[in-house]
Write a structure and sequence with these properties.
Chains A, B: It comes from Candidatus Aciduliprofundum boonei. The structure is a homodimer of 175-residue chains. The first copy, chain A, has 175 residues and is an alpha+beta fold. Chain A is built from 5 helices and 8 strands, in the order βαβαβββαβββαα. The radius of gyration of chain A is 16 Å and the shape is globular.
Chain lengths: 175, 175
């Protein structure tokens, strides 16, 4: 189980400074490009599931969120050798690529908790706090860190949902 | 495009002797275990498609056969790191594992043509002659070799279809 909360931030430098003060270790910066797919016979927006290919290398299924205040959900990932071929197979099976979500992610580790400072075009900056493991102890850890970072309002919507909200159904992304 | 024909054989030693006489090179013997999946909203038996995981390592989509006398069809394959996780993702997406097909395959190469001598429990021995490339020249090559091997009757059904024909809908395979 992946327990995860997300918050919008206005000043990413402030948040990163606080993280370092708390002893967080900077792991690295990466660009993540996700292609999201719609199911041939199920409305993922209603079932709260998602299927994506990240950076042409990982296929990920995300199950429905399991509680009312976090983004916690089951995640199954499998590494794939060729993202284009995976995409071709998914298309043949009736899955439709619906959106591309691109973000620059700066990753910090503090104990068992992973913190991502994300920048997305059109949407701005966000922090995601994540802990993988037993639900209630992971939940405790992520909210504890959120308090230390003075985060109060949490967003349960995915970047995909926020992006669709912002610019409507995504077209012309060359998918 | 994969151009492929298949025939039942009664005496595999005879066929293998003939292959060697024709200059075929023995490549090796392998065991292939395929898990086939049914689509959540499409009847693959009607659309003549297939989706399978081979040996926990390769995900393959097979499109409908493109002619009336061979098994030629589009094939898209992607290597995957973890067959169990791929299976879990497919199940979450509504794909149902319907059958396991296990065969011992002895592979020969003769020019651009690949010949497989397959043994399947319940079904017996078969030869598959395959050539990947431009359709009409590949077609010519596979039928030419079939003539040299004195094969006359060709089977367009997949092992999956033959197995289902033989023992009915497959249950209790622990899928």
């Amino acid at each position: 189980m992946e327990v995860e909360i997300k918050a919008k931030i206005e000043n990413r430098e402030n948040v990163e400074n606080k993280l370092r003060e708390l002893g967080a270790i900077f792991v690295g910066e990466e660009t993540e490009e996700d292609i999201y797919f719609q199911h041939p016979s199920r409305n993922f927006a209603l079932t709260d599931e998602a299927l994506r290919i990240r950076n042409g290398k990982v296929l990920t299924y995300k199950g429905p969120k399991v509680d009312k205040d976090t983004k916690s959900r089951e995640e199954i990932e499998v590494n794939i050798e060729n993202g284009n071929k995976m995409r071709e197979i998914l298309k043949k099976l009736g899955f439709v690529p619906v959106a591309k979500v691109r973000k620059i992610r700066r990753i910090y580790k503090i104990g068992e908790v992973t913190v991502s400072i994300d920048h997305l075009d059109l949407l701005g900056d966000f922090v995601e706090i994540e802990c993988i493991g037993e639900y209630s102890s992971s939940r405790h850890k992520v909210f504890q860190l959120a308090t230390l970072l003075e985060l109060r309002e949490f967003i349960r919507k995915s970047y995909l949902e926020l992006l669709i909200e912002k610019i409507g159904r995504i077209k012309d992304q060359g998918l």
